[in-house]
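Homework help board

Subject: predicted structure for assignment chain

Our instructor gave us this sequence and asked us to write out the predicted structure in token form, then describe one feature. I got the tokens but I'm not sure how to describe them. Can anyone check?
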Amino acid sequence: MSMFPLTSRLTTAAAVSFLALALTACSDSSDQATQATDAPAATVATETAAAPQAPQAVSQEVTGSTAAAVEAPKADGDVDMAKVLEPGPLKEMTLGAEDAPVTIVEYMSMTCPHCADFHESNFQPLKEKYIDTGKVRFILREFPFDPRAAAAIMLARCAPEPQFFPMVDVLFKQQRTWASAPDGREALLQIARLAGFTQESFEACLTNQKLLDDVNAVRTKAANEFGVQSTPTFIINGKRYPGNMSIELMSAIIDPLL
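My token output:
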């Protein structure tokens, strides 16, 4: 069975498959996976991490001007970009030219609604304006808040490499379906089947202890060495920016670096 176009097939098949599933609140937040994810154009929204063993989700919003000339948000801190770009335990999942003048590293959790909103509303404009034009190299990294987030990104990692970003895209689009489903494993299995997984390959992926350890290692290093405490967090040419930023805000950061 071919892996994709997965997004278009899920538009019809997943809607039927999951229509009857009742949504419940996530275990670490009363509204983490069910709250509305339609943020204003210049809104910054984050999900804040707690201890890895008992994560809590906290949302915070900072609303700025929606005028055409948007002021760049102040960075949350400086990060040694050379250390950020050092090879880790997992292969980097990247888009864009390696020699692009701007590098953006996003740390995200698959169960974070603000991450889903960024990828649904703001990522495509970023890709079209900067990544596809050779101005930005984009790197996506794992920062899971809970076991379901870890399972979802593991499945994306287990898909054929060219399908990593499409799989992430579909999982974010269907986040409200699987992240708070009564049986999260079954909900993820249904999506994985549409992506070409069998029961056996699904089980093999989710029981891959080394992959899980590597995913957790990426998160631990980000928290301990780069000050990442919430998702999404973007590190842009050595500056750390927490929150779901609109394309206007991201442009205000990127354009002076070009």
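Reply (TA_rk): Your tokens look well-formed. For the description, you could write something like this. Residues 1-45, 50-67 have pLDDT under 50 and may be disordered. That's the kind of observation they're looking for.
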